[in-house]
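FW: tagging you since you asked about this chain on Friday. Here's the raw sequence from the shared folder, copied in full. Didn't touch anything.
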Amino acid sequence: MTHMPTAPHDGASAPAVTARRWWTLTTVALAQLMVVLDTTVVNIALPSAQRDLGFTDGERQWVITAYSLAFGSLLLLGGRLSDLLGRKRTFIIGLIGFAGASALGGAAGSFGMLVLARAIQGMFGALLAPTALAVLTTTFTIPKERARAFGVFGAIAGAGGAFGLLLGGFLTEDFNWRWNLYINVFIAVFAVIGASIFLSHTTVHGPRPKLDIPGTVLVCAALFGLVYGFSNAETDGWHAPATWGMLVAAVVLMVAFVLWQRRAAHPILPLHIVLDRNRGAAYASVLIAGAGMFGIFLFVTYYVQTSLNYSPIQTGIGFLPMIGMLVLAAQLSTNIFLPRFGPKIIVPIGMALSAGGMAYLTHLNLTSSYAGDLLPPLMIIGFGIGAVMPAAIQTATYGVDREFAGVASALVNTSQQVGGSVGTALLNTLAATAATSYLAAHVPPTAEIAAQAAVQSYTVAYWWGAGFFAFGAVLAALLFRRKGQGQSLNVEHTGLAESPEGTLADVELAAVERAAVDLAPVELAAARPAESPAEHVARHRA
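HL: got it, structure written out here
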């Protein structure tokens, strides 16, 4: 494989080991925790915000969609900017911008201002998320410490997703929905102080590469069309011009983007990053797993809140065992499974476990209990995802030129974001259709029949989610290379020493390396205010 010339990495000249590196880890983890908490608490705060600002059920999705559109469409640009501008500068800019947007949203006096604030949050989140990984990648150079740092980072952000559900319920019930946004300001203050003190100033030596403006415009427009099209499908349906028109435009723009990248002097996404067989398989695995995971959280949340009558805080507590299994599996994958077996074994097994857990969920009904019926499949799915995502993410960033660490990390986020949008739209449409069909076959509709229709719709979604994971298992088994076969790692370009310890560095780095950044939006989909199948039926009957 042909590698592009590698400019010195912006952390290459920094000291390999510094006493403040663990404070750097604390700072970066704190920033990522802010992003995780924000998504969670904003979702839980939506009903209160809706009552306060007076926007409709049809409008409420834009509080979420505005963030996901900006975040998803600008991720590659954010990752590239972190490569070009330097990690510390980009990190601090992202923190300040995210905190400012949070303050604007908390003070919003109208629906429009709240949506604008969420869009700005997404913009700075797209700058902050890829940079967080790049900072740790360039700070921790000793293999064992590097693996430990990313393991801690992944565990903190993974647990933060569940903690955010609890915190959001507490702030909303005992204070005011606005504090779900204001809290980011306080977290950002500490993170900015930490970044200013502990992050190293970095410089790019030699000629600074130029930003690929045409490529940036094409890929941002294409990703915007994808995310918007699939988000619109949730409410307006697949037949709506705004849905299929945006998706067609996205495909055309993506083709134009690829053609341009083949001839651009300074491509925003060098094609060799995605054309490598192992990395391509890894990105596909992240996308498929993202599609399935959004379905898990979305429909299990609706089930426990509407069918079992759980409160938001109880819902968050209910997901804690799943998050715990996810973190456990990620740590085992980091230190034991991935170094021994490689992604060709670990990713398919994790996908298969997740598919089995999704199939297990299909037995849930109106009389099911949490401990006996819901907890076991959630723990199975958590363990499966904990095996899949970290292994796929580590492989996706394995052997990439240090010059492109930010954009490679951003591409993982992009895959997960697009997968989540596709999965949510598709599963919600299938579930809504199932609910409509059930009601049509059971007339006259009663409250009990309506409740049973909802459960039936969730069952359909679980089966399709199981299908996603099963397809992912087969695809991963076919595409990933065997361990040690045709490794794409180029020692010179990754900066690893040609020694057993050096070549093992990225393997020991393990799978949790990007798990926190990429799992965060997924975990928080538990409170995503997408239209439920019951709401879909009610709206169309009206």
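FW: Confidence is low (pLDDT under 50) at residues 1-17, 486-530.
HL: agreed, and The first helix runs from residue 21 to 53.
FW: great, closing this out.
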